[in-house]
Amino acid sequence: MSINIIAEIGINHNGNIDTALDLMNVAADAGCDYAKFQKRTPSVCVPDQQKSVIKETPWGNMFYIDYKERMEFDAADYNKITRNNNIAAFASVWDTASVDFVEKHIDPDYYKIPSALMTDADLLLRTVDTGQPIILSTGMSTMREIENVMKYLLPCHGLILMHSVSCYPLADENANLKAIETLREFGYPVGYSDHTRGIHMACAAAAMGICMIEKHITLDRTMWGTDQSASLEPDGLKKMVRNIRAIEKGMGDGDKTEIQECEREALERLRP
Fold first, then answer.
1. I need a surface site. Which of 5, 107, 238, 254 has the fewest CB within 10 A?
2. What is the CATH number of the domain that holds 53?
3. What is the pLDDT along the chain (272 residues), one digit of tens a residue?
4. What is the CA radius of gyration of the chain?
């Protein structure tokens, strides 16, 4: 089975729908399978004590709640996103109202539960109710916590566990790729959400037999935003996709009952 490659647009569009559509085209041009966004209801997701905090933004100083509202796309924006036929889109959902919104305006192949919300029982149950496959990001979580969450997700129609370490950007020494094998103990397909700079960890994860890889993308790493520096620019994304597809081919099927046809000439020439 081919690895599904997800281009995580997230909030790197900075609230600009044209930038979002450009990023979708970058993802499609690189050969990704999906573009992913993040959907929140800021009035629900932003803690009350944070709503009136002043945040410096490219649009001037504003209350944090106003900044978060500015970053959200409305139904008209998502209509443009779903009309982009170059690549399919879905979203991480951060609250139950966002599940309702995504279900109505995107009708996605997957829903993703972000690491920060993986213990939100109401969100988990509402997402299960959609009947769609669920991707569960497991950053900031222990095996015991993940096991406790499973009781809410087991009725879902397809579950993928995503190894993730919630640091942005993530240092190589903290990537803990062996946790991919640990997560397989649950008996479900495992993917990897990569927050390191570069493509080497994503490629290493591909060689471990993951089913899905997620990587943040940007038009330019110098753009304003917290996720830009750990994101891939268009050329880097193309290189990652190309390398992952090559790794998939190179993994083969593990069969050693016969030598490969390409070895026969060397066998005849080199073995006494």
1. 254
2. 3.20.20.70
3. 799 999 999 999 999 999 999 999 999 999 999 999 999 999 999 999 999 999 999 999 999 999 999 999 999 999 999 999 999 999 999 999 999 999 999 999 999 999 999 999 999 999 999 999 999 999 999 999 999 999 999 888 899 999 999 998 999 999 999 999 999 999 999 999 999 999 999 999 999 999 999 999 999 999 999 889 889 999 999 999 999 999 999 999 999 999 999 999 999 999 98
4. 20
Q: Which domain holds residue 190?
A: 4-270
Beta carbons of 24 and 89 less than 8 angstroms apart: yes
**Helical (H) or strand (E) element with 255:** none
Q: What is the DSSP letter of 199?
A: S
For 213, the token pair is 């890889």
CA atoms within 13 A on the CB side of 272: 0
Choose among 93, 113, 117: nearest CA to 105: 93
Question: What whole-number distance in Å separates Cα of residue 118 and Cα of residue 45?
Answer: 14
d(CA 116, CA 104): 24
> Which pairing describes strands 54-57 and 60-63: parallel, antiparallel, or unpaired?
antiparallel
Three-state SS at 37? strand
- With beta carbons less than 8 A apart as the criterion, state whether 166 and 139 touch: yes
DSSP letter assigned to residue 84: -
| Cis preceding linkage at 169, omega within 30 | yes
- The residue with tokens 């900031």 is 140
Domain count, the chain: 1
